Automatic annotation (TrEMBL):
Protein name: ADP-ribose pyrophosphatase YjhB (NUDIX family)
InterPro entries: Nudix_hydrolase (IPR020476), NUDIX_hydrolase-like_dom_sf (IPR015797), NUDIX_hydrolase_dom (IPR000086)
Location of the Nudix hydrolase domain: 90-218
Transmembrane segments: none
One term of GO molecular function: hydrolase activity
Pfam annotation, one family: NUDIX
Highest rank taxon of the organism: Bacteria
Coiled-coil regions, chain positions: none
Amino acid sequence: MNRTIYFNELAVEFLVGNKIIHQDFDSILKNFQTDQDLTSLAGVVLIEHVSFENEDQFIKVLMNKDLSELSKLHVIVDEIQFNRIVAGLAIVEAAGGLVENSNKELLMIKRLGKWDLPKGKIEKGEGKEEGALREVEEECSVEVESEGYFDTTWHTYFDRKGKACLKPTYWYEMSCLNDKKMAPQLIEDIEEVKWVSSAELEDKMQDTYASLRELLKKYIEKNTSNN
């Protein structure tokens, strides 16, 4: 099963136990060994092997180096190696919602200058769906109900203490029951809460995070196939 994790804005697809189907790669790296192996490349890159002794260094490069010239990175690993590679990252679970109103508009928030979806950390003892509902209601002051699980995104970041973290975010489709008191949760740096039409969504996707952009593409595809 492949797993895509976002390191900053770079999508890294770990090809776990799968054979590579032919694809046009700009570069194929037989064996990752040093920082320069990645920082000198551009476009879509395949790494065929990361040795055991280089796994820690590989994660450090992904977390710390400027890899903006890469558009996507594919890495061949097995299940055991994938688990080893991410073992040094602290797992911080979060949940959020793709909320629609009766006009089929999507609820979006603007946080720190970027368009985003309402989401947040799951509290201790809280279920994923429960946490998603709570976060949406807290961040946007709306009443919602869940329509079921949609997808999971994964991204990395450094916390305030400088610890490297891996955050899986569990997304649920939701419908809005009441938005009469809709307002941004300012304490969470949310500047704006807005119902976004399908016509507006493409523009908003240009000013959001890469992991969220892919999630929204899946959301649009699902809605298109259902119409």
